[in-house]
């Protein structure tokens, strides 16, 4: 197979590359969560239901999930510089479409274009970080990623809450666009090539099957809130999604160069940490979608107040990410993840008794503690799993991890919104609607409890033991 090694990762100047990658990731994640507090305003402006309006966030995560498997192929086909610049340009074009969108259909098209670019950026960044940093420093490096992932939701909901209260919601995209353009210009001059190109053959049938599979499942679950689980549209969508997804997975095992390498799941630690990451991300995105709807539509809070509720927790998660990264480098992921999931489970349960009189202080404090717990789970679990893979499987491992996490969050959020609307009582007042919110958080509590049980199967390893595991993985690969 033809190979093209495009960079010297040992002698390369890491700082400008890290800065550009983190900036791009920050913009993408900020954009992903920027609409959380704006959903009620979009619902009112475009006359949408909760189940329809939540598509502005879930479609972004779903397309992210669809694009991520393709990213492993793209990373091995194109140079790092060309791929990152292309991804940022696509993202910027999508942002402009969203800003100019006259209706919901055009807004959805813009979100799809945005997500196509963002879906490339995030796994590309993680792959580059794992290649340019030695294994004993990966915890700290991934801590920086966690910092960005955390500060984006800290700023996003509060910023969007203030903007939609004073200006039309489309201004959200006008604010994002200049930052995306600036990052493109800087990346043009400082981005270097650090990945190895092997020029794999693309399997177009796999792309079609994965798109129909993931898309069918999400559409079926999301539509259930509007049409009911017994609707022919819902049933047909779920069946088509399940069949094509099964065909996609089966096909990957037969291909010499699969789009998504399912063989990474033969590494037990990677499998466990991926499932834990999926559960944690459902809990994170689900709560950040449901709580603003509850606060603004059921409890009488303003958009700014719902943004303020999210901000302290997101900032706390951001400050903790580098700390947990350094702790991970010293003691490994096991006790970090166990402690974090215990906190997330307890705080999820504390959200199961909300009412129209629940105070902003209570919501803010519980959410902040919850985000503190999530900070101990996300990056440590991800890094611990990826550290078990040989270098040649790291692009596929990051692709699989990000795919499963984004798809789980998109489908999981759709399920939670459907549960929230289906469980709402016809009491004639907001208490009936809030009952649906409480039931949704009971489901979140059950999910995080499953994640907590799984976390006890993570092996406690030190950096030295991780290096030995990597050496063994390289020998067996």
Automatic annotation (TrEMBL):
Which Gene3D superfamilies does its entry note? MFS general substrate transporter like domains, Multidrug resistance protein D
**Molecular function (GO) terms listed?**
transmembrane transporter activity
InterPro entries recorded: EmrB-like, MFS, MFS_dom, MFS_trans_sf
TM annotation in the entry? 12-35, 55-76, 83-106, 112-133, 145-165, 171-190, 202-221, 227-249, 270-294, 300-319, 331-351, 363-386, 407-427, 439-458
**Which subcellular locations apply to this protein?**
Cell membrane
Q: Name one Pfam family in it.
A: MFS_1
Membrane topology per the entry is: Multi-pass membrane protein
The record's section on PROSITE patterns has: MFS (PS50850)
What Gene Ontology cellular-component terms does the record carry?
Answer: plasma membrane
Kindly indicate whether the keyword Transport belongs to this entry: yes
* CDD domains in alphabetical order: MFS_LmrB_MDR_like
Q: Which residues form a coiled coil?
A: none
The Major facilitator superfamily (MFS) profile domain is annotated at 17-463
Q: Which PANTHER family match?
A: MAJOR FACILITATOR SUPERFAMILY (MFS) PROFILE DOMAIN-CONTAINING PROTEIN, MAJOR FACILITATOR SUPERFAMILY MULTIDRUG TRANSPORTER MFSC
What protein is this chain from? Answer: MFS transporter
Organism phylogeny: Bacteria, Bacillati, Bacillota, Bacilli, Bacillales
């Amino acid at each position: 197979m033809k190979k093209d090694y495009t960079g010297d990762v040992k002698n390369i100047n890491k700082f400008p590359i890290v800065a550009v990658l983190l900036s791009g990731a920050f913009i993408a994640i900020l954009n992903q969560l920027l609409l959380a507090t704006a959903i009620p305003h979009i619902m009112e402006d475009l006359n949408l239901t909760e189940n329809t309006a939540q598509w502005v966030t879930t479609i972004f995560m779903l397309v992210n999930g669809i694009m991520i498997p393709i990213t492993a192929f793209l990373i091995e086909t194109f140079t790092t510089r060309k791929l990152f610049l292309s991804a940022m340009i696509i993202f910027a074009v999508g942002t402009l479409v969203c800003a100019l969108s006259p209706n919901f259909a055009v807004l959805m098209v813009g979100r799809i274009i945005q997500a196509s670019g963002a879906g490339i950026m995030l796994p590309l960044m993680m792959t580059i970080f794992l290649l340019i940093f030695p294994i004993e420093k990966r915890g700290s490096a991934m801590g920086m990623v966690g910092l960005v992932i955390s500060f984006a939701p800290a700023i996003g909901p509060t910023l969007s809450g203030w903007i939609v209260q004073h200006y039309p919601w489309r201004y959200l995209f006008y604010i994002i666009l200049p930052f995306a353009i600036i990052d493109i210009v800087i990346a043009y001059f400082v981005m270097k090539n650090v990945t190895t190109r092997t020029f794999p053959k693309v399997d177009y049938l796999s792309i079609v099957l994965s798109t129909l599979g993931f898309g069918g499942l999400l559409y079926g679950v999301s539509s259930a809130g509007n049409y009911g689980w017994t609707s022919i549209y819902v049933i047909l969508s779920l069946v088509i999604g399940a069949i094509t997804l099964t065909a996609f997975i089966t096909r990957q095992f037969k291909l010499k160069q699969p789009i998504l390498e399912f063989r990474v799941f033969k590494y037990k630690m990677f499998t466990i940490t991926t499932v834990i990451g999926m559960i944690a991300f459902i809990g994170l995105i689900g709560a950040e979608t449901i709580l603003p709807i509850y606060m603004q539509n059921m409890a009488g809070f303003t958009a700014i107040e719902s943004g303020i509720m999210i901000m302290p927790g997101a900032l706390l998660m951001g400050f903790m990410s580098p700390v947990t990264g350094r702790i991970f480098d010293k003691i490994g992921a096991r006790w970090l993840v166990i402690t974090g999931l215990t906190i997330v489970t307890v705080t999820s349960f504390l959200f199961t008794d909300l009412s129209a009189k629940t105070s902003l202080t209570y919501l803010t404090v519980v959410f902040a503690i919850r985000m503190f717990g999530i900070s101990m789970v996300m990056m440590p679990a991800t890094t611990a799993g990826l550290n078990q893979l040989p270098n040649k499987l790291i692009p596929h491992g990051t692709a699989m991890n990000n795919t499963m996490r984004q798809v789980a969050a998109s489908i999981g959020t759709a399920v939670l919104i459907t549960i929230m609307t289906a469980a709402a009582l016809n009491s004639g007042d907001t208490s009936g609607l809030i009952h649906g919110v409480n039931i949704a958080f009971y489901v979140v509590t059950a999910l995080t409890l499953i994640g907590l049980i799984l976390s006890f199967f993570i092996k406690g390893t030190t950096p030295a033991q991780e290096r030995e595991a990597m050496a063994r993985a390289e020998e067996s690969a």
